[in-house]
Amino acid sequence: MRQGRDILVIGGNRYFGKRLIARLLAAGDRVTVLNRGSSAPPSGAIHLVADRNDEKSLIEALGSRTFDVVVDQVCYTPRQAAVARRVLTGRTARYVMTSTVEVYEYEDSADPVRETAVDPLTVPVDLELPWNDEEFLESHYGEGKRQAEAVFAAAGPEFPYTSVRVAHVLGGDDDFTGRLQHYADRVRTGAPIAVPAVNHPATYIHVEEIADFLAWATAQDFTGPVNAASHGTLTTGELCGAVAAHLPSGEAVFQAVEVGEVSPFSFYRSYGMDNSRATKLGFAFGDVRQWLPKAVAETLGQDV
Asked: Where's the NAD-dependent epimerase/dehydratase domain (predicted)?
């Protein structure tokens, strides 16, 4: 049985973050959760309150603490990454950043993309962009994550890090995004579902599986980016079919659009990630089609 570790989780005290914390505590790790005080962590975790954007606040909250692993669930910009890197260098033996499939927003390949498609060492960093502006940040989500990864990659061996590029997450009765509910509402009423004229599939991961993956990643020693996605891809039609199967009536009616806003899981380009690096490192992913009915039922409050 392994020794319990000292692990710091920054933010992420809901959805798959809270599941990660529960797994670490159950494994006997000593977990410290740092956030702005908006929510208390699960029983058994230490709670630190600080604004992760404020370097002085972060240093004061951490005091002299050191950690075996840091899991950063809320690093969205290169400014936040720069602060984390300065404060945590020398305090942790491993840093795990939750990144996103959105780092590949400019890739458009029929084949699932590998981590090498976006090399953080080649990504330019601009700390002067208006990263504190919420509208700018929302519209530059993928860019913020790319540049944050670049800040950590530039540190070299003195800051051992991995960035977990997470596929679109589904499942759980606490899915706060409203994306599956969007489809359920339209299937019930027969309202049209906007999709691109050429609608591409994407990779997904179950909320429990990404929590498992992050917990697993804390115990590994690989560095650099890694894709986290279940095996297989789904189209909007397959998602809506799974939603319709859990509703008493209604059907999916699709409306093709050439430009403009489309429904949440509809894509103008391919959004598939290659998960072979993580698989070779030893993580066993599930198949998206096997867990999809369960994920939809959980979120819509239906029996599996």
From this structure: 7-221
